[in-house]
Amino acid sequence: MTRLTRAEAADLAGVRPDTFGGYVTRGQAPAPAEHVGRTPLWDADAVRLWAGNRSGQRARNLPGRQDRNPGQVNSMPRETPAIHAIVVTGAPASGKSTLGRALARHLRAALIDQDTATAPLVDVVARLVGAHDLDDPALANATRAARYETVVALAEENLRLGTSVVLVAPFTAERRDVREWSSLQQRLRAAGGKPTLVWLRLGAEVVVERLRSRGAPRDAAKLADAERYTAALDLAEPAFPHVTVDAEATVEGVVDGVLAALKN
Question: Residue 68: CA atoms inside 13 Å, Cβ hemisphere, count?
């Protein structure tokens, strides 16, 4: 059987090597048939079959095969699927992480949740500054820029590999200020992604109910004076193009709404 390097497999399929690598990572293309040292090798027939099924046309022949016509120009279109960069935002306890996981599962995308990516280091800083509420200015001012930079940098790395991403964080500044959103959009687009802002809509009373239900220590200060907290909540939708979903709907319903919007 003929074995191909990643570059040869990508050439046979009519895509860029990093795009093919992204398909493999997401389980959307054949896995390597074997490794020689650290070099993965693909079965040529498996790649050819995958490419044919994907495009609906005959994949190109391997260079050097006897049935190849050196003068023939291959006209198979190189389809480039959308690489999504979905930014999930909403009020506390609106279900951002739950929606992010569901979307990532459906899209075979990388999930980049700010809490997961930054919580251990934030805990270290919290002990150093003597604050444990992320809304405390002492902690927020010391960590916000670094936390968001971590999320965006991880997204850029994945997008450059051809992998869609789902970013989960409050993104308060980005949804309030069109300039902040434009800056984030530019970075995600430059890395190869198609940005979409998703806003989870939830009423203030439901926010408080959910905070009480989850019982997280970080919510104690908010719930100590719930009336004051809800009065200060900014639940206004972004003033620029975005996808709004009802955070009280089922997860399946919310996911279906977002996926439908991505097709438009």
Answer: 12
